[in-house]
Specification:
The protein is of the alpha+beta class. The protein has four helices and nine strands; from the N terminus they run αααββαβββββββ. The relative contact order is 0.12. About 10% of the residues have low confidence.
């Protein structure tokens, strides 16, 4: 059920602002998750869709129902649930000035929001000092923006892309890819800029 085409169809529902349909699809996918991590990521997709609906003044159209056993009724509750889940996934208790425990594995990049306009934040972690590259490409495979290039110490990173290219010019709406390379461990994911 949760193949790439199905997940792309859910993203399309979000792009078309059919939030209830997207949430229903994610809730359906949640029943077929084979790993704990997949269920967490799917639940985060539900939360993000709910937040997108709220941002587009469609909260009243959303009836999320039970999300991981908790009825989702407000944006504040969605944000609190998101933070709790991310803390669980990354084992990062927040103490004072957001001191995080860094996981002992490389966490591949994820961006939020997606779709976005005009900025998105790409998060990743590295368990040790590593050579890191984070590059944005357009649909033709051409480099658009080099966000990270060099050595990063062990830690969790949040990199903001404000939809500009290497020359500082704003890019057009469309599909973009971000490629994270940490010491040869490569992850490439898709994101959509909507203006």
């Amino acid at each position: 059920m949760a193949n790439a085409a199905y997940l792309d169809s859910l993203l399309c529902e979000r792009l078309l602002k059919n939030y209830q349909s997207a949430i229903d699809g994610y809730v359906d996918k949640l029943q077929y998750c084979s790993t704990y991590m997949d269920s967490i990521l799917t639940t985060l997709d539900i939360l993000y869709t709910y937040l997108e609906a709220e941002a587009n003044n469609q909260k009243s159209a959303i009836s999320v129902g039970l999300c991981m056993g908790v009825p989702l009724t407000s944006v504040k509750q969605a944000r609190e649930m998101e933070e709790t889940m991310l803390n669980t996934v990354f084992d990062r208790p927040i103490i004072g000035e957001q001191t995080y425990h860094v996981p002992d594995i490389i966490t591949t990049a994820n961006n939020y929001p997606n779709p976005f306009n005009p900025t998105t934040t790409i998060s990743f972690s590295t368990p040790k000092t590593s050579k890191c590259e984070l590059i944005i490409y357009n649909i033709k495979g051409q480099e658009v923006k080099r966000l990270v290039s060099g050595t990063k110490n062990r830690g969790i990173y949040k990199i903001v892309w404000n939809s500009d290219d290497n020359n500082g010019k704003k890019v057009t709406s469309g599909v973009y890819f971000y490629r994270l390379n940490i010491d040869g461990h490569v992850s490439t994911k898709k994101m959509v800029l909507m203006k």
